[in-house]
Amino acid sequence: ELSTAAQENVKVNVAIINNGFLGMVRQWQEFFYERRYAATPMRSPDFVKIAEAHGLTGLRVTTREEVIPAIQRAGQTEGTVVIDFRVEQEDSVYPMVPTGADLHNMIRRPVPNRIVETAQDEI
C-alpha cells in the first residue's frame, strides 16, 4: 500500500498504534485467558525507515507531548505520512465485545483516554 501511495502521490496519513504485540490478540489473552500470552509478542520493523524507503515521511511518537505536533505535521505535509505511535505493551483498546456477547455486555475503558480528548481539542 505504501508503494502505491508513493507512486500515485496520494495524501494519506497512516497511524500505527504500536505496542510490540499483536495488540487485540494480546488483549483477549489478558482478559479471557488470565494473561497466558501465546504467539503475541512481535518484533516490529522500523516503520519510519519503511516509509522513508518508499520516499514518504515517517514519524515516531514515543511521548504524549509528541502526539499533537506529529499529527499537525502530518496534516501539513504533502503526500503520505506514516506515524508510528509507540504505546505501552499493556495498553488496551476499548470498547470491546466478548465473543458471543451482546452490545450491552461491551467492556468499556476503565479510565478516560486523555490523549485523544486533548488531541481533538487542540487540532
UniProtKB/TrEMBL annotation:
Domain Thiamine pyrophosphate enzyme TPP-binding: start-end pairs: 1-85
One GO molecular-function entry: thiamine pyrophosphate binding
Pfam entry (one): TPP_enzyme_C
Annotated GO biological process: isoleucine biosynthetic process; L-valine biosynthetic process
SUPFAM superfamilies: Thiamin diphosphate-binding fold (THDP-binding)
Family: Belongs to the TPP enzyme family.
Protein name listed in UniProt: Acetolactate synthase large subunit
